[in-house]
Amino acid sequence: MLKGDAVWNLTIMFLQMWEFHHGIKEDYTLFEPHKYHPAPFESDGYVQPYGDSPLDNETVGENVYLNILHKAKEYVYISTPYLIVDNEMMVALELAAKSGVDVRIITPHIPDKWYVHTLTRAYYLPLIEAGVKIYEYTPGFIHSKTYVCDDEIGVVGSINMDYRSLYLHFECAALLYKSKAITQIKEDYIKTLDECICITQDDCIHITWRKRLLRIILRLFAPLM
To answer: Averaged over 47-62, what is the pLDDT?
Structure first.
């Protein structure tokens, strides 16, 4: 749960959307966090909520993810319901793994959309060949979007690793730095791995020609998914 000044960023993002939709001007001072809580809030590291919009010509969500991958030294643990990424993100994931960073990605084993799930699996082989570890969550569909890196950085939000989320949607997330919550994100991730199966190169190679052809065709429509 966020409290204090970090909530103010999220409040402003909401009020901006509210004003745009309703065409009215709100008094932002009525919603300031210290108006109803004058005492200091407990501080623990840094929390920076942020928004991403397709209207500002800046891919904030993807840039945050890329920055984490480029600066990682020990590990990056990722959870995403969809894995449909561009070449820049693929290269960043592969280079991080090749440089010795423990890169792990959890995706669902049970899909919500079969064609998106099929396309997600089309990205597995080159990532696994580069050293990225891919896991699928077996109990059901997993919808969390999290990054945790080197016990220092964490991201929790609505930003999937797919074209629509990174380029076309209005999204938001919170970046955490040296907060105790990062340890909680990591611990939850490790526990989730116990409910996952590890995908191997053989799993990606030994598929029917029909599935292989379907993945190739779906890759052509990746920017729409």
So the answer is: 89
- 214-125-209 Cα angle (round to 5): 30
**For domain 44-224, which architecture applies?**
2-Layer Sandwich (3.30)
Q: Dihedral sign, CA of 175, 179, 181, 182? A: positive
Residue type (1 letter), 182: I
* CB < 8 Å & 24+ apart, contacts of 96-100: 96/69, 96/70, 96/72, 97/127, 97/130, 97/131, 97/132, 98/130, 98/131
Quickly state the pLDDT bin for 18 (edges 50, 70, 90).
confident
CA–CA gap between residue 155 and residue 49 (Å, rounded): 9
Q: For residue 167, give the DSSP letter.
A: I
Q: 139-168: b or e for each residue (b if 16 or more CB lie within 10 Å)?
A: eeebeebbbbbbebbbbbbebbbbbbbbee
Residue 31 has pLDDT above 70, yes or no: yes
Task: Report pLDDT for 223.
Answer: 67
pTM for this model (two decimals):
0.87
Q: Are 159 and 145 in contact (CB under 8 A)?
A: yes
Domain chopping of the chain, boundaries: 1-43, 44-224
Q: What is the mean pLDDT of residues 196-220?
A: 83
* Banded pLDDT at 225 (limits 50, 70, 90): low
Name residue 103's beta-bridge partners: 76
Nearest to 156 by CA among 138, 182, 195, 124: 182
Q: What does 29-73 look like in DSSP terms, one character per residue? A: GGG-HHHH--SPPP--SEEEEEEE-TTSS--HHHHHHHHHHHH-S
